[in-house]
Amino acid sequence: MHDITDTYAMGDTPELADELLALVLAGKKTAACDSLQLMQQDNIPMPVTGDKYMLLDGRQRPAAVIEITDVFLCRFDEVDEDFARAEGEGDLSYAYWRQGHKDYFTRNGGYSPDMTLVCERFRLLEILDR
Description:
Elements: E1 6-8, H1 14-25, E2 31-35, H2 36-41, E3 52-56, E4 62-75, H3 81-86, H4 94-107, E5 116-127
Parallel strand pairs: 1-3
Antiparallel strand pairs: 2-5, 3-4, 4-5
């Protein structure tokens, strides 16, 4: 078994958690980001390369294990198209990524173009039986 750093569901609703998880399981989503400020506020430790996380589905059931392959800080307005595409969401365009994440951060504590994001790239290690 993997040495799991933490367990979480992606997104902020059960529906979004299932949608993002499906993208991970299909190999389409290999990156994610979060607000540095919100992570610090919620005492969420900074991920490091090699960390392994158990992803939960929208019903909080263990669904997959991922391993962080890269972590970097980046301003929202400096995220590049390659990273946005690696998030695997929508039509894979930068415009879709930008609007979806602007909406997400607005719902979850605030958005600003110069906000600092914790950007992660990861690989899927294991799909768990649910």
